[in-house]
Amino acid sequence: MTFQEIEKYKSLDFFARQVVEGFITGLHKSPFHGFSVEFAEHRQYNPGESTRNIDWKLYGRTDKLFVKRFEEETNLRCQLLIDCSSSMYFPLERQGQFQTPNKLTFSVYAAALIVELLIRQRDAFGLTLVSDKIDMQTEVRSSVLHQQYIYGLLEQMLKPVDGNTMDKRHTDIPRLIHLLAEKMHRRSLVVLFTDALVGEERQEALFDALRHLRHCKHEVLLFHTFDRDKEIDLNYGNKPYYFIDMESEKKVKLFPNELAQLYNEKMEQLTNSLRRRAMQYHIDYIPVDVNQGFDQVMQPYILKRSKHY
Predict the structure, then answer these.
(1) Structure-derived torsion over alpha carbons of residues 231, 235, 239, 243, reported in degrees to the nearest 10
(2) CB burial of residue 52 (10 Å; 0-12, 13-18, 19+)
(3) What span, in angstroms and rounded, lies between the C-alpha atoms of 257 and 226?
(4) Which CATH class, in words, describes the domain spanning 3-26+75-308?
(5) DSSP of 210-239, one letter per residue?
(6) What pTM was computed for the model?
(7) Which among 22, 172, 246, 309 is least surrounded, fewest beta carbons within 10 Å?
């Protein structure tokens, strides 16, 4: 599913249920295959239902059909961490439409899909929003009521923002991740959505913070969100533009076509550096183009979930 199809959904809850259901149906095998389960009890087989879980050994002893029931383990705790600094609002939406999805909006919808997957596994989850401070942090729970609470918070972040009146918020994710690592006492899966627009020095600080999470036995999924067409390829056409830093408001006038090749090389170096550092520190790094579908988020999450939990 792409962003252009989202407008037909009236609520984040309905969107998440429909997309996840369609995603699961489209897989060749259940995405929950291989998840940790444990035997609970036997019950009598009812004619017409699947024979998949019939205990044939017990049938051989009793000459009666019984089905084995299992309970899924619910030992996963997931902390969804979303970067809400001003740069995540790029590109600014026009009249609340999704023809130009921004990174924050994409992250909100992606987080909602992961919450839907979590609730289906009866896993516990919490939401943390960060910029230059911890803007909001919920408890980690596993209930439909908590799910609806999270959806309500996420929906508040989908309101269109005027670039002229938008709060200019810098990012200080490394410091905040260190704080979170100190507070999280139970092993968790941390899912981070950020555009990672930092220089070499700040990139080192970011991964130092993520290493802190790994040192505390947490698993980390880093979704690097970007608009490839505008932020990587610099595809603006052959005319001058004013480029404005959404956090500092600094301006520069230039012809994008004259710098596109050099700029693209620099951005690819940034992406390769992020990937290399993540591999070095055993962090799952997933580059995400916000103009593409949500499979690029759900598939890595399911793989991580089934592998470690």
Answers:
(1) -10
(2) exposed
(3) 20
(4) alpha beta
(5) HHHHHHTT-EEEEEEEE-IIIIIS----SS
(6) 0.81
(7) 22
Kind plus residue range of the DSSP H or E element containing 125: strand 124-130
pLDDT tens, 86-124?
A: 999 888 765 444 456 799 999 999 999 999 999 988 899
Which token pair is 288?
A: 């995400």
**25 pLDDT more than 90:** no
How many angstroms separate the CA atoms of 23 and 4, rounded? Answer: 17
For residue 209, how far is the Cα from the chain centroid? 18
Distance from CA of residue 277 to its chain's centroid? 19
Can you read off the two tokens belonging to residue 175? 């410091």
φ/ψ (deg, to 5) at 300:
-60, -35
Rounded distance between C-alpha atoms, residue 306 and residue 122, angstroms: 14
- Backbone CA torsion sign across 277, 75, 109, 248: negative
Q: Are strands 134-137 and 189-194 parallel, antiparallel or unpaired?
A: unpaired
Q: Which helix (H) or strand (E) holds 290?
A: none
State how far the Cα of 183 lies from the Cα of 219, in Å rounded to an integer: 15
Asked if 9 contacts 21 with a C-beta cutoff of 8 angstroms, the reply is no
**Domain chopping of the chain, boundaries:** 3-26+75-308, 37-72
Q: Furthest-apart CA pair in the chain: how many Å?
A: 83
Residues 6+ apart with CB under 8 A from 31: 23, 24, 117, 302, 306
